[in-house]
Design goal:
Elements (H helix, E strand, L loop, with lengths): L1 H37 L2 H8 L1 E7 L1 E2 L3 E4 L4 E3 L1 H17 L4 E7 L4 H6 L5 E2 L7 H4 L2 E10 L1 E6 L16 E5 L3 H9 L4 E5 L2 H9 L5 E5 H10 L3 E4 L6 E8 L3 H16 L2 H10 L15
Parallel strand pairs: 1-5, 1-6, 9-10, 9-11
Antiparallel strand pairs: 2-3, 3-4, 7-13, 8-11, 8-12
The structure holds glutamic acid.
Length: 289
């Protein structure tokens, strides 16, 4: 009887030990994961000698993959390179810029997972997003507009406010939410990226594609049968973003941006990418003048 009791006690004790060990391992791995996620972005960047920027790869003028070079090109790519060089100067560390393509829907998660260090991806500063990421100061002024076929009778977002019309947007964009406010009766279809949204517009799945004017101008240059109508009906100031509570990194980025604006680099890049876009007044896009 005594033997059985002892054995039973032994088994229970072993089980408790195993449970404690398992919980210990789980707790330790969670702590490591949390530390990785919440580690200081500036310290991480300096340690690896590289800033990995999440950039657009499907957005002409901002970040568009060049299939020949295998590298993205656009205003934001150039600005990210200049920012990286300036932050390197400020910190006295060697830093190179590295690019990872993101979409509007994936970008915040990639930042949270530390797959990227920062975002420079046509991202509008909004109060909701500011709760989960740290934004820099504004580096670009856009606003939502509409792209329609040139022979369309649609002149503005108001004309779209009818259940017979469909507005095409991209998943994860401010346009996906704002369109419902400005044209509550219209149908809204959200596509994965701008290439598919443009394709949907061309194949007649909707009568208008809506997003920021500057992005639409990029699409219009490649699709001459389409043009922007109705001007802009929202304000969409772009900010670079870092993970939440990354003050040292955000401070460095703001300082770098201010320097690039003061020394003329920023202005040169705006002119390089936007000066010759038909219909676009590039002065409206500039910040800090
Ligand atoms: N700027 C808008 C946004 O942040 C639309 C463009 C985009 O998503 O990249 O949602």
């Amino acid at each position: 009887m005594e033997k059985i009791r002892k054995r039973r006690f032994g088994i229970i004790a072993s089980l408790i030990l195993v449970l404690v060990l398992v919980l210990g391992v789980l707790w330790a791995s969670q702590t490591v994961k949390n530390n990785q996620t919440h580690q200081d972005t500036l310290a991480r960047v300096e340690k690896k000698g590289q800033i990995t920027w999440g950039v657009k790869a499907d957005t002409k003028l901002f970040g568009l993959m060049n299939t020949k070079t295998g590298q993205p090109a656009g205003f934001e790519i150039d600005l990210a390179k200049a920012m990286t060089a300036q932050i390197a100067k400020q910190t006295g560390k060697k830093l190179t810029a590295n690019f990872v393509p993101v979409t509007s829907a994936s970008r915040i998660q990639l930042l949270k997972n530390t797959n990227i260090d920062g975002l420079i991806s046509t991202m509008t500063i909004t109060p909701e997003r500011a709760k989960i990421v740290d934004f820099t100061n504004v580096y670009f002024n856009a606003g939502q507009s509409l792209l329609v076929q040139k022979d369309s009778n649609i002149q503005s977002i108001k004309d779209m406010n009818d259940p017979k019309y469909t507005v095409l947007v991209v998943v994860g964009t401010t346009a996906a939410q704002e369109t419902k406010k400005y044209a509550p009766k219209a149908k809204v279809i959200a596509l994965q990226d701008y290439a598919s949204a443009m394709q949907a517009l061309k194949s007649g799945q909707g009568q208008a594609l809506s997003t920021d004017n500057a992005i639409l101008y990029g699409l219009a240059t490649e699709n001459p049968d389409y043009h922007l109508v109705g001007g802009v009906f929202t304000k969409a100031p772009y900010g670079m973003a870092f993970d939440h509570n990354q003050k040292p990194m955000t401070k460095q980025a703001n300082q770098a941006l201010a320097t690039l604006q003061a020394d003329g680099t920023y202005n040169r890049l705006i002119e390089k990418w936007f000066k010759n876009v038909p219909g676009l007044d590039w002065h409206d896009l500039e910040v800090g003048k």
